[in-house]
Amino acid sequence: MPINIFNEQHDLFRNSVRRFCENEVAPYALEWREKENIPRDVWRKMGDQGFIGFWLDEEHGGAGLDFSYSVIMVEELCRSGSWGLNTGYSVHNDIAMPYIDMLGTPEQKARWLPKCCTGEYLTCIGMSEPGAGSDLAAIKTSAVRDGDDYVINGQKTFITNGHNCDLIVLACKTDPKADPPYKGVSLIVVEDGTPGFIKNRKLEKVGLHDSDTAELFFDDCRVPAANLLGKEGDGFKPMMTNLQQERLIVVVAYIALLDRMLEITVDYTKTRTAFGRPICSFQHNTFKIVEMATEIEMGRTFTYSLLEDYLSGEDITRKVSMAKWYLSELTNRVAYDCVQLHGGYGYMEEYEIARLFLDARVNTLGGGSTEIMKRIVGKMMGLGED
Fold it and tell me: Same domain, yes or no, for 372 and 271?
């Protein structure tokens, strides 16, 4: 389908990003995965190229571009083979930084955003806790006002960029007695090195080994009250609003993942032979490949229609929740079938399809599980509670 959100300026940007990925990402992607770490100088290099925070105004280090350029970044990073870098990049550029831009005071923006754009600072968002994932109103991490400071106590888990972060936008309870509970949620920026901010451990995951995912503790962590983003007790609504963009950017990544899995599988089945002929020529295998290609193309059409709606300012909550659950499930179905078409080699991690199979599994969990997405859509359709 024609993609109306891109023009010649976008093409120039894409070419620049693609060259960067070919030179600075693709040759090292497997090494980063094996070492379970992405060097910090990669972020500096992306910052030098203007690939971070380009949607900000020039005063804060950006170029005044829109979300469509984030789409290009994600597509090209996924194409390069480092799904961990793409995950960390999306959290930094499209999830955490926007809170500072949207809610920050002029002083906060001037203090943090330029360094985020250069790659000197790496950010993350601290929402999930051991007992509160999708139910953000139920978080337990507390922030108690004490003079000119907040004293923070609690724990966060599954935090992308958490181990290497310089700043965390932390969701916490400033009023545990608020009724309803979400009115007690606030957002506070905590800086690396703050006493009581403890980066406990990097979590061992099934896939995405090059992505930094951490468990964090806050033990009488004293943070200046000036680090509060927005007003006290007003943190919940911005999180709900920003989840639209968060889920849209991961859906874009799903399409890129689907494209890559199908591409390498088609190539493999054309060259791998059985009984004297390419395995793609057997009718069952042909049908399976065609079915996958058709579903991917349908998902792409839906995704780009959502992008157009979002860029025009429409509320896409219902549709992006649909896309999130459906396409995350599709990545897992396609991963399964692509591994099957590779035969025994599909089970070997030296083959890219095996690594993508592992990486895809988190899609139905992270950023809102399939079940939560269906619950959101069901409520918006007037189907009520569980």
Answer: yes
pLDDT attached to residue 385 = 64
195: buried, middle or exposed (CB in 10 Å: 19+, 13-18, 0-12)? Answer: exposed
246 in catalytic set: yes
Please list the residues that pair with 221 across neighbouring strands. 152
Residue of 75, 129, 215, 246 marked catalytic = 246
- Residue 252, token pair as written in the block: 């874009």
- Is residue 12 located within the same domain as residue 117? yes
Domain range spanning residue 61? 8-121
Identify the H or E element spanning 60: none
My answer on whether 282 and 209 are in the same domain is: no
Q: Which two tokens stand for residue 111?
A: 């203090």
* Rounded average pLDDT per 10-residue block, the chain, 386 residues: 77 96 95 93 96 95 93 94 93 96 96 97 94 77 95 96 96 90 92 96 92 96 96 89 91 96 97 94 97 98 95 94 97 98 95 96 93 94 78
Q: What are phi and psi of 121, to 5 degrees?
A: -105, 140
Say which CATH number the domain at 339 has. 1.20.140.10
pTM of the model: 0.93
User: Residues 214, 324: one domain?
Assistant: no
Helix axes 68-80, 8-24, angle to 10 degrees: 30
Place of tokens 């070492």: 35
Q: CA dihedral defined by 13, 16, 22, 28, rounded to 10 degrees?
A: -90
Q: From CA 355, how far away is CA 335, in angstroms rounded?
A: 10
Number of residues assigned to the chain: 386
Residues 111, 183, single domain; the answer is no
Q: Is the dihedral of CA 340, 354, 323, 50 positive or negative?
A: negative
Pick the last residue of a domain from 121, 153, 171. Answer: 121
Residues 244 and 303 in one domain: yes
How many whole angstroms separate alpha carbon 327 and alpha carbon 258? 9
Asked if residue 11 lies in contact with residue 76, where contact means CB atoms within 8 angstroms, the answer is: no
